[in-house]
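Action item from last meeting closed. Structure (407 res):
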């Protein structure tokens, strides 16, 4: 358990400390008072919604921020964040001094992890020699409070539906499924009665639930098989999910070419253009029903050996992975790669469509081993680098408690 919890605590403490130090530096005027929070009653905040087509310049102009201030803020931020990249749907907070009506700080949430703060340094009269105010910028980790939560359920039609019926945040279910993306195909391999249970972090700000954080451990019972995933950092470059034996959850191929978040409906029933791998019907492929435009990902690293039109396959991409395996992806609406290009595992290579001999939007996925089409769901792939022998005892010690909670 020492892994991510500790990291997150350090991150929070680090973030809070950095913010604190930086605040006390920038408030300047009375730097001897270091244990003081910024006083909200001395300021007021203007929230600016970033709408479609708006840019930093336009938004600041609309907020009547003088051109020179706009530029000073932009330049001050440049080293830590490019304000020309502000994103649609987010907000920029402009914090003003209540007495002087002067803009003192700009706050922008960069992503779920960090905020950008650009603040005007208050000078004392003895040091003020230039007329331009000084602005300084910093990226600060958002100081979430972490609570540990557990979620579980029994699958009737799909894991997604089972989780939602239990009120589990869909982002947490998706994160759990991602821990098993090299092991389980949640569309084709899930059975009625399969169970799932996972332990994860929930992030709060000022007591309010914001979002799920890291999944720490998960168990998926698939057709009687007990599958585990534990999040663990063995060393600087070996971090991720590992199973109960210390083998990496990560394998050379992903189980499905469409991410779980796009095919949450689980069992594919009814639609006649959805077929399983079936030698007697000659359908040596797996079909995935998905809406038009759903990203299709390469299941492994490789080189594009075909990208274009191929008769009844429509728009097709083939990936050569190694001397043994290659994969084909057909009926796509649009391709995202070209011949000869190198791709990495999970990279988008095209988008679901219904080109060629197809009666509805779906992905036709084939895996080829030594020139023969095989069933990728049956194939067992070697795992990536697991926990080193000398570290296994520590690893087993770290997961014991989590495993007990899952069982
Ligand atoms: Zn097919």
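Sequence:
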């Amino acid at each position: 358990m020492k892994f991510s919890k500790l990291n997150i605590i350090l991150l929070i403490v680090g973030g809070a400390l950095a913010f604190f130090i930086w605040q006390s530096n920038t408030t300047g005027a009375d730097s001897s008072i270091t244990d003081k929070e910024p006083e909200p009653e001395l300021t007021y905040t203007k929230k600016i919604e970033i709408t479609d087509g708006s840019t930093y310049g336009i938004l600041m102009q609309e907020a009547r921020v003088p051109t020179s201030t706009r530029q000073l803020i932009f330049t001050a931020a440049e080293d830590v964040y490019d304000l020309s990249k502000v994103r649609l749907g987010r907000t920029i907070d402009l914090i003003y001094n209540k007495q002087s009506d002067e803009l003192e700080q700009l706050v922008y949430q960069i992503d779920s992890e960090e905020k950008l703060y650009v603040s005007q340094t208050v000078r004392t009269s003895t040091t003020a020699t230039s007329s331009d105010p000084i602005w300084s910028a910093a990226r600060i980790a958002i100081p979430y409070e972490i609570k540990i939560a557990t979620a579980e359920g029994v699958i009737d039609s799909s894991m997604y539906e089972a989780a939602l019926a239990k009120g589990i945040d869909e982002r947490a279910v998706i994160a759990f499924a991602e821990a098993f993306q090299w092991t389980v195909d949640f569309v084709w391999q899930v059975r009625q009665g399969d169970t799932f249970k996972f332990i994860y972090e929930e992030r709060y700000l000022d007591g309010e639930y914001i979002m799920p954080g890291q999944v720490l451990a998960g168990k998926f019972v698939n057709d009687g098989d007990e599958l585990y995933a534990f999040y663990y950092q063995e060393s600087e470059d070996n971090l991720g999910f590992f199973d109960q034996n210390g083998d990496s959850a990560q394998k050379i191929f992903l189980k499905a070419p469409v991410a779980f978040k796009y095919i949450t409906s689980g069992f594919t029933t009814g639609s006649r253009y959805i077929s399983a791998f079936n030698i007697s019907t000659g359908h040596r492929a797996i079909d995935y029903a998905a809406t038009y435009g759903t990203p299709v990902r390469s299941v492994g690293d490789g080189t594009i050996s075909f990208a274009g039109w191929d008769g009844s396959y429509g728009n097709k991409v083939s990936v050569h992975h190694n001397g043994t395996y290659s994969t084909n992806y057909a009926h796509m609406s649009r391709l995202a790669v070209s011949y000869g290009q190198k791709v990495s595992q999970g990279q988008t290579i095209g988008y679901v469509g219904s080109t060629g001999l197809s009666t509805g939007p779906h992905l036709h996925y084939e895996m080829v081993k030594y020139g023969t089409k095989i069933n990728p769901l049956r194939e067992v792939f070697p795992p990536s680098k697991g926990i080193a022998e000398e570290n296994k005892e520590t690893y087993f010690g770290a997961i014991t408690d989590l495993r007990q909670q899952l069982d």
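Note appended to the action item: The radius of gyration is 26 Å.
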